[in-house]
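Thread: Modeling a multi-component assembly for a lab meeting

Hi all, long-time lurker, first post. My supervisor asked me to bring a structural picture of a complex we are working on to next week's group meeting, and I have zero experience with this. I have the sequence lines for every component (602 residues in total). Could someone generate the structure of the whole assembly? Inputs are pasted exactly as I received them:
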Amino acid sequence: MEPTFFQKRLRDVVAVIVVAIFMFPIAWWALSSIKPYSAIFDRSGPVYVDFTPTPDNYRVTLLGVSRVQIGMEQGGDAAGVIKGGANSYDSRQSLADSAIIAVGSTIVTLFLATLAAYCLSRMQFVGQQSFLFWILSQRFMPPIAMVIPIVFMFRDLGLRDTYLGLILVHTLINLPLAVLLLKSFFDDVPREIDEAAMIDGATRAQTFYKIVLPMVKGGIAAAAVLCFIFSWTEFLLSLFLTTEIRTVPVKISTFVTSTATEWGYITALGTSAIVPSFIFILLVQRHLVRGLTLGSLKD
Amino acid sequence: MSDAVSVERARGLALPRFLTADSPVPWLLPITAMLTVFGLYPLGYSIWLSLHKRNVLTRQLDFAGGYQWVKAFSDARMWGALETTLLYTFVALALQLVLGILIALLLDTDRRGYGVLRAMMTLPLVVPPAVTGMMFLLMQDGSFGVLSFYLYALDLVSPARPLLTQPHTALIAVMLADIWQWTPFMVLIMLAGLRSLPKDPFEAAAIDGASAVQTFFRLTLPMLRKVIAVAVLIRGVDLFRIYDYVYIITAGGPGTATETLSFYAGRIYFTGDFPYAATLSLIVLIVLIVVSNIFVRVFKVRF
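Re: Modeling a multi-component assembly
Sure thing. I ran the full set together rather than chain by chain. Output:
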């Protein structure tokens, strides 16, 4: 039952259309980021190519050029341009904050999750499934329910508005999926390898560190990327737990002010925020497509 | 030879005794500590809060027994929010699952170019949910949104009743953002599942002349059962806790039409009534624990 030529082409066409539909919002978003304001707010219909592209939104958000200066370059009256939100739109510090927090929480998550996942994959103990369910149930708590206690706790511990505080919180939300994902990668490595190493005199810790860990490098990279992305994109807890530190999603939300929604800056920073995550996910896609069964197919 | 040397050298390392014993304790201790401090403590605190009541005069929290719980169960708005949450969860989950399986089947081939399509399909996953909310807000804007424009053009929505202003369609608008962002996650999981299925049964089916539809329902679907169960569990939990998209796209409105349980709890939180907000959050948690426990048992999910 080989598909006919026509069936193959039909599949190609459908596949391209489906992917294009999913691409459209991002493409539209990226397109809006280089549009002048008049093109974003055109009420007569969508503007695709009929506008003069401008890098101004990126210059303001990524290079820290003030909007007054841009207004003067355009020869308009500066006072008219700065009307509206009074926040700073320079987002370089936010990108740095987000990067520090995302990388930090990825490292902490991987450390905790790798140890736990290896153990849960290799050792049998009473209540193992319950322990896993307990880890998974960390994801059940509505974020808003975590906010109240953690705000008080962080105030007492002096963790409010610190990188460490957000790193720990993001670690907490990433742990369940990271453990499940890593466990499924460890499950793919035959137990006989561990046994052989231990018969040769290696301890459990040595077996883990020197033999099994290097074999799941790809899986760890995949888990790292997912953790990075979830931390990089997390909104609610970052919003509540910080005032000085502003992660990128929180920063973007400040561009919606009581007087105006700065779609130009929102789309520019939003587009920039997607780029690093997308590069990372492309690098590990092969491993993700293998590991995301989360161990459910094991005998 | 070199292996023997490295093991020999490894043996020379002096490790603390508890690390060399084959016990799960040292492996699970760090994660347990983390989850106890940042998981159990907030839980305990929420339960404590839910048993108290804010005294308006003294601004103190007084013990109030089941007061908050009685209040929650007789709160019509809570039941409305629960209904909205359930509707949202079931519809979005069903659509994400069906679309996820179909798209995974569509993209699961080694033909040239499909690798690029699969890569592009993962793009929505990396968009911050807050940004996704704004994307759909921009596209669904009643006067200059591109999606609104086409919906008007196709006569699916009347310009007099923009998507976000009507109680029934506003929830659909929020769901669209969720479906767009998370269907790719389902696709990834299903692709992972499809890739790990054994080849033999499919070859046998092809030889026996089974049609593609028969193969799918008799072979693929049953064999993917466990993967589907895990995917439904993970997505279902997240859908039931939905907050971000509602917060950004509709803020619960119009009226309370898109107010989910998590979002209602958040709204109460902003009024400063922490005990009631904690109670509402705990209802979300309890529902999730009960339902997912039943689910894990019925579908025999093992991690």
